[in-house]
Amino acid sequence: MKFVSAAALALVGCLVGFNSANAQGAAMKTTPATKILAIGTINPGFEQSQVFSVLPEEVRGTVDLYLNGKIEQWYSLKEKQGVAFIINVTDLAVAREMLEKATFGQSTYDELRTDPLGPLNPLRFLQGMQPKP
Asked: From CA 121, how far away is CA 28, in angstroms rounded?
């Protein structure tokens, strides 16, 4: 039960932000990027026939990236037309280039957003997780 409470507190601290009083003797380490989250949304001005015209090529490109270990997970968006991928690279430029080569750079996409992901850094503040001097 203590762990659940501590984990919840760390998550709240992550969402709200730690103030300097909470982090007084421990400097927050930079969280390394370990994956890239890529979200592509379909241009709202495009008709389905336009989207379906490039879909076979996009699917082939996506499957190729998946089979080569570059895409770890792939999803469709629930609230709007588009896709989300968790990619096994750490560099945003590499991720964008890789997706654009797989046809996601075509004009059917209104936005191709890429964001680095990493470990939940505030977990370092849990008891026993502080670096030893």
From this structure: 8
What tokens appear for 17 in the block? 């932000």
Mean pLDDT by 10 residues, the chain (133 residues): 48 48 54 92 81 83 93 92 92 90 71 90 74 61
Q: How far is it, in rounded angstroms, from Cα 4 to Cα 22? A: 19
Q: What is the DSSP string of 67-107?
A: HTTSEEEEEE-SSSSEEEEEES-S-HHHHHHHHIIIIITST
What's the pLDDT score for residue 64? Answer: 93
From its phi and psi, is residue 33 left (phi > 0), alpha (psi between -120 and 50) or beta?
A: beta
Buried b (16+ CB within 10 A) or exposed e, 99-118: beebbbeeebbeebebebee
Cα separation, 123 vs 8, whole angstroms: 10
3-state SS record for 11-74: HHHHHHCCCCCCCCCCCCCCCCCCEEEEEEEECCCCCHHHHHHHHHHHHHHHHHHHHCCCEEEE
pTM of the model: 0.69
